[in-house]
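Appendix B: complex inputs.
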Amino acid sequence: MTLSEENYLKAIYHLSRDAQDEVSTNAIAEAMETKASSVTDMIKKLSEKKLVKYKRYQGAKLTEEGRLYAVNVIRKHRLWEVFLVEKLNFSWDEVHEVAEQLEHIKSDKLIEELDVFLDNPSVDPHGDPIPDRHGNIQPSSKVLLATLRAGEQGVCVGVRNSSREFLQYLDKLGISLGDELKVLSREPFDNSMLIGTGDRKLSVSSLTANNLYVKKI
Amino acid sequence: MTLSEENYLKAIYHLSRDAQDEVSTNAIAEAMETKASSVTDMIKKLSEKKLVKYKRYQGAKLTEEGRLYAVNVIRKHRLWEVFLVEKLNFSWDEVHEVAEQLEHIKSDKLIEELDVFLDNPSVDPHGDPIPDRHGNIQPSSKVLLATLRAGEQGVCVGVRNSSREFLQYLDKLGISLGDELKVLSREPFDNSMLIGTGDRKLSVSSLTANNLYVKKI
DNA sequence: GCAATAATTTAGTTTAGGCTAAAAATATAT
DNA sequence: ATATATTTTTAGCCTAAACTAAATTATTGC
Ligand SMILES: [Mn+2]
Ligand SMILES: [Mn+2]
Ligand SMILES: [Mn+2]
Ligand SMILES: [Mn+2]
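Resulting structure:
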């Protein structure tokens, strides 16, 4: 499997929240920053290899084999992100680009030993779950901060958007995974919230609250 | 720079012990397990990029820029080998294949932090020197075991041949880097030697003695 | 139900990095 | 010194993965 094929599988996986539904050619093209015609060529190839189910004009859907392959690439991506943060002093907004390269390294022993070396982490630096060696993903009960009512509390456990801009903004706000947040009030005017964390109070915009996952406590 | 270009630079570097001499097209082809015609195409391309000096029918020679690039790839290769052995329980005969992939990952921060994480190692698991970030390589005074006379002693510091077969054979003999060896006698008949290490005595063939580096003590 | 629009595929190119076969240059051996 | 052998280059193809432009199919609005 080539680097490009692996990236397509990953993109299709991420685009189909339910393993059932077909992903459109255009959606894949946008995610991969490429053209629809290139996508058609590639999904035909992946279809030959039985990694994708494809009928002309009907989009693509991963086969079970394709899903397992995609999940394994994601496992590698996330383990490498943990490694970079925990061992090499990378910050959470610096890891993605390098992990995009490292996820394509081929060696079963490498990834199993890395997993052991990192003490079998269950989530990556952005709070995303790390699939196990068999492709199983731990279900989690996280909800968006935006869904909490005034008075409710939660622990910050992940981000929905992991762009550098958002991650660096959270750093600036002083919000990290593991922090306990309490919703002090919600502002109907612009859907922002006033939250308390530690001894600080801060106002977070609707957009921010819709990109931060918490686990209720 | 593509993976293939990097591999050509590395091959040319390894083939030219003295940075002066030209490396022949055929020699590169053999080292890269490719055809001479492909090599011609590539050295033309590297020549355009000023990484290689090339005149038709006269072989290739790295420019200073090309040498620095090659040495940096080798630095990455060897640091990753140290990582695999020291942190991930790889044995010295398993690391090369994976390091061949890892050496192409592009991130300056990654390699500098890896260097720090590993405590700035000076040699890789095969005793080969790790260039520093500026491309300088520590000169070393190692000699082949085969050059020692009866009665002389040395510490095992490296291998000339790092094929899996040879490394596994050394494991079977119980010889590791760091071991002290004493030449008890040399056998004129087949150039083998009788050596003592710890409380053991063993006979090593001429071929083995010509592929093991020691530092005299 | 049909025309307009949007999505998708096809056809034809491009570039990187291979290959083979043939031509050209260099090296070697009488 | 020249014929032969070896090395290297050139010419022409191939495949993977992109692209553009044109053709085709699906969807939507009336
Ligand atoms: Mn990532
Ligand atoms: Mn992540
Ligand atoms: Mn190696
Ligand atoms: Mn090595």
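The longest strand of chain B covers residues 180-187.
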